[in-house]
Amino acid sequence: MTFKRTLEKLEILADAAKYDVSCSSSGSNRQNKSKGLGDASSSGICHSYTEDGRCVSLLKILLTNYCIFDCAYCVTRKSNDVQRAAFKVEEVVDLTMNFYRRNYIEGLFLSSGIFKSADYTMERLVAVAKKLRLEHNFNGYIHLKSIPGASDELMREAGLYADRLSVNIEIPTENGLKLLAPDKNRADFIKPMQKVKDEIIQYKSEKKQIKSTPIYAPAGQSTQMIIGASGENDFQIMQTSNYFYKNFNLKRVYYSGYVPISYDSRLPQIGSQVPMLRENRLYQTDWLMRFYGFDVNEILNPLHQNLDLDIDPKLGWALRNLHEFPIDVNKASKRMLARIPGVGMQSVHKIIQARQYRLLNWEHLKKIGIAYNRAKYFIVCNSNQFEKRDLTADKIKGLILQNSKSKYTNMLSNQLSLF
Amino acid sequence: MLEAKHFYYDATFEGLLTAVFKVFEYKLSTVILSKSTAAQEHLFLEAETVITDLEQSSRVWDGLCKKLSKNGTQMLYHVFLSEIEYSDQLILEFCIAIFQGKAIEFDVAHPITSQLLKIKKKVSRERHRMTAFVRFRLTKDHIYFASIEPDFNVLPLISSHFKKRYADQEWLIYDVKRHYGISYNLKEVSVVDFEFHNQLDVFKTSTDFFALEEIEFQTLWQSYFKSVTIASRKNLKLHTQHVPKRYWKYLSEKQQ
């Protein structure tokens, strides 16, 4: 390959792929086969971080940024005046192999603009993965985009070579989608997702009977939603997210703060701020749902349709439910420990382990690593010091904010001044 | 009668385990442990040099394997590789407590256990970083070469990771700080001891030693790294938190 041309294409097609935030390389159990190249580490590895602080773990590129669609939020939309380029299958394979050999990456994340038709595009993506697996004995991580509208047959093949498949639903509600991407419909996104889900279930059950059954998309499926492009509130976003987790067994839903890229009047204008803090609060909510045993309705419901920006969602929930506190850390169940603001799952496990040996006091809890400033209002432990005043929720919130410095202070004052 | 002693050992893990054995052989109550390189007399204690005995050390290790979980024994080895002052003393005291039948492994609020866990965490983090930050460069002899300078002696901990992953290429990872490396010849990993010529900057990719395509792939990688940054989300504080500056010298994407 000619080095200069490849360099040009890489610049264009990496730039176009960067708005896809998923860069996870975890959850696969693919092992090195017959002394080939690569081994998908199950914990995932971030090999570097961009200057905006996001993990770089995969070579994330588009096969091409030619596209027949004209979705308003997308930088590669048909009507946008940008440089276009397309990789040959061989070029992507060569880049992946050589980057991997140098320990730059965990593998490949291949997406694409849609050229000609959904199937034509999906076929090319599958061809890259197939070549890497079969001709080069590559056992690193491969994440392929499922192209909305691709045929079942192609989706089945894709899962045989890829570790993860994903379709980005991008817009959280159907109305938003109609407005911003009139030539797409929700059903097209859901079809390949459904197919992959069914195949995963089927392959897994066959594998139980027949050991030699090939692995199928071992790292599962994910999707992404753009935040702040189409006016949805947090309640709608998390309802959608919950729906996809529950119905399609997704491994992850990603939330991507909208980065303005056009002067389209339907969208936030260029220069307006990326809602990074809101994005962060949504991720925290997502974690509460998946790891902390919260039901989404406890945090967001018709009465509380938006998350607080100045405090985290768990603290927000606790302040609305003061009747559940204080919690005695030496007696409480795992479920209740996980609900204390300022106590993460790691601390929960440590508390449960440590309290088998002695009654825990504040010193122990600090050593274990809880966020004392937040947690102290909600806990009693083996100490006669605890919050004895009957404080109101507003008062507690005030005290916590007063005594802590958020890394978001600057962002917060900026974002709040918008209202 | 129980007595106290000051042990010198040869700074190997086996030496440390032998010291544990001696504690019980001599029925000692208090032991101060020092590396024989750091000769430091202790005023009131009788000094003795522990001669590493592989039979005794493996008996101690087997005993630990029986009494501790896999994580527990792994923790001890990790802490040993930290090379942090007094970490060997902590390991010794932990082992003594374990053999005395005190179940402190999961007592995370116990003063010794909590210190060990803290060090273990640091070493694990460094181990993980090295699986991420090693950057191989292809030499003219077709060996993928990487030089690193980790905070702790983690080469023994990453060797199996690289062996599994890069099974079809010859590679060498060199620890510049500790003057040794691990190398893979398509069959097995071995430890290699050598020093580079003083004049040679091992972090520089000179065309005298490295393949021509190496420079091209570094350029491609650097340009990729630039292209994926979203300018409107720039956050250099977060960036350096994830990639501390002391590692930049061996990251290809950070070379100009």
Automatic annotation (TrEMBL), chain A:
NCBIfam families: rSAM_link_UDG. Keywords: Iron, Iron-sulfur, Metal-binding, S-adenosyl-L-methionine. It holds the Pfam family Radical_SAM. CDD domains: Radical_SAM. Its cofactor is [4Fe-4S] cluster. Residues 22-31 have a biased composition (Polar residues). Residues 62-199 form the Radical SAM core domain. The lineage of its organism: Bacteria, Pseudomonadati, Bacteroidota, Flavobacteriia, Flavobacteriales. This is Putative DNA modification/repair radical SAM protein. Residues 22-41 are annotated as: Disordered. One of its GO terms (molecular function) is iron-sulfur cluster binding.
UniProtKB/TrEMBL annotation, chain B:
Residues 88-253 form the DUF4130 domain. It comes from the Bacteria. InterPro entries: DNA_repair_put, DUF4130. NCBIfam families: SAM_7_link_chp (TIGR03915). This is DNA metabolism protein. It comes from Aurantibacter aestuarii.
